[in-house]
Amino acid sequence: MKAFISTLLASIAIAAPAMTAPLPADHQRFVDTMVNDGVIFMVNEPAQVCYDNNDMNGAYVVFEGDRYLVVCQDNRKTSDVTNWTANDLDTIRHEGFHVIQDCMAGTKNDQLFDTVFTSQGEVIDALGVEEAMRIMSAYSNNYDKDRHGDIKYEIEAFYAARDYSATELNSLYAQYCK
After folding, report:
1. Nearest Cα to 72, choosing from 7, 127, 132?
2. Distance between CA 26 and CA 84 in Å, rounded?
3. Where are the domains of the chain?
4. Contact residues for 51 (Cβ-Cβ < 8 A; gap 6+)
5. What is the pTM assigned to this prediction?
6. Looking at residue 41, what is its pLDDT?
7. Residue 75 near residue 57, CB atoms below 8 Å
8. CA distances from 121 to 17, 106, 161, 178 (A)
9. Edge to edge, what strands does the sheet with 39-43 contain?
10. How confident is the model at residue 109, as a pLDDT?
11. Per-block mean pLDDT, blocks of 10 residues, the chain (178 long)
């Protein structure tokens, strides 16, 4: 994870926005809400994140005070991709939820997260213990040991992306980030 963040931060300054097919209306509204609030939405860029044998779906990162939501589309061959997949839309909801988590603690551009839902146990129950364990296992290999507590934010984001629509997430964004 540390190498990924370093690569992302190094490449963001030189990345250009990609041209893509239109999003479904509900996802476009969610993206527009974030963009109008200062989030920089990037698709299939920066190349060092979305290509170079990376299998990343996306990322949310704050760099020099700017918030970036990156989506690496499933069908990417160049920076211009025409087909949004269900996984791409899930990635927008997942990374968008991380933006909401960033609004929950400190300032909304400091990448200090807090949970949105009051009960982590209820989130795990709703997501399923097996799925939560899979996420914990995957992210424990990616996060430094001092960040293992942050895995709760990933569990919450996977749950929100699966169980909340873009419209519902847009409402949460308006509630917590405006």
Report:
1. 7
2. 13
3. 2-177
4. 76
5. 0.85
6. 96
7. no
8. 39, 24, 17, 28
9. 39-43, 66-71, 58-63
10. 84
11. 48 48 94 98 87 83 93 81 89 98 89 90 93 88 67 94 98 94
Report helix, strand or coil for 113. Answer: coil
pLDDT of residue 171: 98
Per-residue confidence (pLDDT) for residue 4, from 0 to 100 = 47
What's the CA gap between 133 and 155, in Å, rounded? 9
- Of 51, 47, 37, give the one whose Cα is nearest residue 96: 37
**Digit-coded pLDDT (tens) for 108-137:** 888 899 999 989 899 999 999 999 999 988
Encoded amino acid at 125, one letter? D
Residues facing 43 on adjacent strands: 71
Q: Cis peptide before 22, with omega less than 30 degrees from 0?
A: no
pLDDT the model gives residue 146: 58
CA distance 108 to 6: 21
Give the span between the Cα atoms of 51 and 37, in whole angstroms: 28
12: left (phi over 0), alpha (psi -120 to 50) or beta: alpha
71 within 8 A of 88, measured Cβ to Cβ: yes
What does the alpha-carbon distance between residue 66 and residue 172 come to, in Å, rounded to a whole number?
21
Residue of 106, 103, 99 lying closest to 157 (CA atoms): 99
| Residue at 162: amino acid letter | R
